[in-house]
Amino acid sequence: MVIPTWDRTLPTLISCIDSMLRALGGAPPYALTDNEKTVTIDRVAGVAVRHPQIVAAGRHYGLQVHTCVPFDLESKGGSEATVRIAKADLVPTAANLRSEYGSFAELRGACAIFCQRVNNRAHRETGKAPSSMLDIERKRLHQLPEAPHTLALGESRQVLRDQTVRFGSVRYSTPSGLIGSEAWVRADGDELVVVVDLSTLPVRPDWKQGPAGLAEVARHPLSMPGRPVIDLSHYPDPPQDMDGSPRPPKPKPVNEHEKAFLELGPGAKSWLIEASAAGTTRIRVKMAAVVELAALVSVAEVDIALGLAATAGRFDEGDLMSNVQHRRHGARSWTPAAAGRCCPQ
């Protein structure tokens, strides 16, 4: 298993352990890890002293956390080999010809694909795929608790309807698909970390990739009250552009007459948007007349004429028919002129 993380802090380590165990479907008697300060806080006479929160987390999941012996290949080599193999395929280098990742979600997806490919491939020594061997070993694993270990994950919050969580009287955004779910927030230096248990979500979000369990879904710089921190990438279809200017509306038919008009093509949608913005009267009557005209002439011709009328801002009774007749008489190329302006012939 390969799980990308922003840091190597204790809460991140616990969330990775939770995700790993839930992907395995149970807990083994012990877990072997390197001698990091998040696991080993001291060494007395060569004996590693465990971090008390790691001990509590291991007790919660029903396993013991062991650390490898320094400079011992039999124990330390096993904990480092996986990292070396994963880096060779996933870290952008000239060797694997991988370019930079566009986002952290893209890296998470690449790790999930890597794990699926490796775990479903026959091992050179055993001749069996790791996924098939896991099905056998899973019978010997301990059952996992339903709730994740949250001792070091921070404070519990609910994701509000605007996709934000509140911490210190400040709103911080979260990715879509988490509204109403429980999240844990904590301050990590000058940043706020948001963690969610993906296995409890009723619907799988579009961005969710990799194993279920605890996962970091957002990280923001800490802010002050009155200054919410909003990541625009968490709102893939906002009503405004990045510069704050409003986006054009998206027509959605609510009856058969509107549906028949909008099905004429993109020109019909543009005509409706521009005509509405220009304050055109009797729009429904004109839309019905356009549908009748399309049945007599051609849907493609009428849609093109609607697009030209929208560009020129011409929405009077006879403007559309004038455009259609102009094109039907062989004049295929012309420059639309806005209403009230002259266009040189």
Would you kindly provide a written description of the structure presented here, covering whatever features stand out?
It is a single chain. This protein is of the alpha+beta class. It has 3 domains: 10-140, Ribonuclease H-like superfamily/Ribonuclease H (Nucleotidyltransferase, domain 5); 155-234, no CATH class; 256-328, no CATH class. Helices cover 36% and strands 15% of the residues. The chain is built from 10 helices and 10 strands. The chain has a 4-stranded antiparallel sheet with strand order 5-8-9-10, with helices on one face. It has a two-stranded parallel sheet with strand order 1-4. Strands 2-3 form a two-stranded antiparallel ribbon. Helix 7 packs parallel to helix 9 (299-312), helix 8 packs antiparallel against helix 9 (299-312) and helix 9 (299-312) crosses helix 10 (319-328).
